[in-house]
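fwd from M.: "can u put these together and see what the complex looks like"

so here's what she sent:
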Amino acid sequence: MLRLELKDISKDYPAVKANDRVSLRVGAGEIHAVLGENGAGKSTLMKIIYGAVRPDEGEITWDGRAVEIRNPQEARALGIAMVFQHFSLFDTLTAAENVWLGLDRSWTLAEVTRRITEVAHEYGLDVDPLRPVHTLSVGERQRVEIVRALLTKPRLLILDEPTSVLTPQAVQALFVTLRKLADQGCSILYISHKLDEIRALCHKCTVMRAGRVTGEVDPRGESNASLSRLMIGAEPPQLEHRQAAPGEQVLAVHGLTLARTGAFGADLAAVAFEVRRGEILGIAGVSGNGQQELMAALSGEDGRAPAESIRLFGQPIGHHSPRRRRAAGLHFVPEERLGRGAVPSLSLAQNTLLTRTEAVARTGWIRVGQATALARHLIERYNVKAAGPEAPARSLSGGNLQKFIVGREIDAGPKLLIVSQPTWGVDVGAAAQIRGALIALRDAGCAVLVVSEDLDELFEISDRLVVIARGRVSPAVPAAQATREQVGQWMSGLWNGHAAHAGQEATHAAA
Amino acid sequence: MLRLEPRPAPSRAMSLLSPLLALAITVVIGVALFALLGKDPVRGLGVFFIDPFRGAYAVSELCVKATPLMLIGLGLAVCYRANVWNIGAEGQFVLGAIAASWVALHAQPDSGRWIVLPILLAGALGGMAWAAIVAFLRDRANASEILVSLMLVYVSYQLLNYLVYGAWKDPEGYNFPQTITFLDATKIPRLFSGLRVNVGFVVALLSVGAFWMYLFRAFGGFQMQVGGLASAAARYAGFSSRRALWATLLISGGMAGLAGAFEVAGPVGQLTPYVPAGYGFAAIIVAFVGRLHPVGILFSSLLMSLFYIGGELAQSRLGLPKSLTGVFQGLLLFSLLASDTLIHYRVRWRPAHPAHPHAAKGPAA
C-alpha cells in the first residue's frame, strides 16, 4: 500500500501557479526524489505535505485514507517529519535543549538527552547533545535537525536540499543513515537538484518543471542527461574550458588575520593566497568557515584588515574603501543579490550607479540618460529578462538579477573580479551563462576569484583551488590534479600541518 | 467575507491614490463629526475646506502657514529617505528662530534691507547646530536620533523661555515675556502690499525644485537614499553612512531653522514663547502625506495649512473648539496609514463557506 499519495494538487500564488495538478506516490520504505530547478514548485509541494501551506485543490491520501493536513502539528501526528534547508535552531541553546523545545511537554531534558544519544548511535549520527549549537559545524547542525525529526519516529521524512551544506564525505555518511532508515520502513522524500546524488540514493524520482510533473522515473536506470532533459527541457550546456595562461600576480593576500564581527562567524587566521592574471582561483569550503569575513575584507566593506595583508598589483589596499579599490580595478559580486548587490526598490538604471559612476558628472549630477543606456546595454548583452531599465531590481528573478549584477561588474572591465556564490539559486541555463562569462573574462586576461559551496562548479571553472576551513586557507592545488576526496578532506580542515584543527568534522567524515 | 491578499508587486496607482483616498475618508468622518456636534455638516465643511480659499487675504494666509510646513517637510523627507529619524524639527525650528532673532535684535534704525540675509542665514545655522548635536551623539555614542532629537525639542523650549523671560525681554513690554518688535528693516519682504504672504513662500516653492533635483538628479542624494533603502548595498558600493547621517541631519536642521527665521522675521515680527506653534511636528505628517516627495510635500503642506486655518475659522464662525485642527490632522494621518495597506495588498471578496473543502482560508505563508 502507498504511504502517501497526492492527487492533482494545485496551489496559486498571486504572481505564479506554484503547483499545477501535481500527483505524487510514495511507497513504504521508499526513497523518493523530487527533482526540479529553483522555482519548479518543489518547496511549495513539501510545505503542502507538511501542512505549512494549504492547497487550493487536490487530494491527499495517507495510508489509503483521505486526509486534510491543516497544520504542521497534524502532519507530525500522522508521522510526517521535515528537515528544512535553513535550520531552525537557537544558536545559544544546546543541541538537547533545541530538540526538547520541539517535543511535547511530557519529556524531561534528561530523557531527551538520553534518547538523542541512543538514536544518534543507532543511525550513526554523531551528535553531542550538550554542546551549544553555535559551536557546531553546519553538518553537525543538520544532524541535530535529523535526530530531532527521528525522535518523533516518523513514517515519512522530508529532506529539503540536505547536501548543499555538506562535504562529500559527510554526504556519504548521510546516505548510509538514510538507507538504514528506509530499510526499517520509513519513507523518505528527498528534494534536490543534484543528479548524481539522486541516481546514487533514490528508488524513484518525480521530476517537476514550472509547477508541473514532467515525469516519474527510476533514477537508477537514467543518465544525468536524460534526467536533465526532464528537469529543464534540454541537456545541460557544456562549457568549453581552455588551458589557462596565468600571468603576473594581481592579488596577494598574506598573513590576513581578522577577528569575526558577529558572535557566530569565523575568525580569519593567517590567510594567504594569490591570484594571477588570466586564471580563475576557486575557494571551496562549507559555508560559515570564514568566506563572508574574507569577502568583506577583500571588497573593502570591512576595512579593518592590516593594510599590508591585502595587496593589489603590489599596492597595500587593506584600508582602502570599496570605491577606491574599484577605481584600482577590483570589482566584487556579493552572494546576496537583493539588498547588497542591488537595492530592491530602485530601478536597474539606478542600480548601475552603485558601482558604475561613468554617468555621474564631475559636478555630482547624474546623467540619467547615460545610466539608463548602460542598464539597457547590460540587459541586452547578458540576456537579462526584465521589463526594461526602469524595472525595479526586486521584480527580477534571482537568476536574472544575478546575470545583471555579474554583467554590471564584468562590463566595467575589471582587472580582478571577485565573485561569491556566482550561481547560488540560479537556474541551470543562467548558471551556464554566468560560468561562461567568467571564463571568457579570464581568457581576456582578468584575474578571477570565485568562492562557491558547489564543488562541481569549482571543478568546472577553476584553474587552481584552495579550501577554506575554520578561517584558514589551504595551499593551492591545480584543479586538474585535485580529487573530490582530497578537497572534501581539506574542507574538514585536514591539510598538512593543520591536522590539529580537524576536530569533530573529520571524525564524522571518517565514520 | 472580505480579505486582504498580498499584491505580486506594490501598486503604483494606489501609492498615488492613497493620499486622496485618505483625504476622502477624513472628509467623511469630518461630516459625521460636525453632525454629532450639532452643526450643519455642509456649513461645517464649507467653513473648513472652502472658506480658506475665499478671497486674496484668505489665500495669502493659507500660503503663510504652508511656508514653514513646506520648508521643514522637505528637509524631513530627505532625512526619512535616508532612514535617519529626525523627529525634533520643532526644536531646530526654535533654535533657528532664536538665532535669527539674535541678529534681528542687533539691527540699528539705519540698517539696510540687506540685514534680512544674515537673519535667514543665522536661522539656518541655528537649526543646523541643533541638529548637529543629534548627529554627533548618534555618530560618536550611537545614541538613538529619535530620542535625542525629540528631547532636544524640550531643551529648546527652555532656552527660548530663558531668553524671553530674561535677557531678551522687552524693557518696555509691561513685563510680557517677549522681545521688542523687530525693526522694519529686518522684516521679510512681502509679496503684495496688504497681504502677509512674503518671500518665504517663494523660497519654499524654489526649494521644492531644488530638493527634487537633489533627490533624483544628484549623486549625493542618490548615495544617501541607498543608505536608507539598503544599508548593506551602501556598504558594498562604498557610500559612507556617516556622511549620510551628518548631511541629512544638517539639511533638515537647516531647513527647520530657516523656517524659524522666516516665522520670527515674518508674520510674528518678534520672539515670543508662542513662536513654536507645532510646525515641526505637523511637518512630519506633511512629509509622509506628501510621500516624501518634494511635489507631494508642496500639496500636503497646503492641505495641512488648510486644516490650521479651517480650525481657526470653525472656532470663530461655528463656535467649535480649535482642537478640531489636531483632530483633522490626526484623522488624515491615520486614514493615510490605513489606505497605504492597499499599496501592498488588495481586497478580495471570498464566500464565507468555501465550496471545496481544500480551499485555503488563511493567507499564503
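replying to her w this: Residues 353-365 of chain B have pLDDT under 50 and may be disordered.
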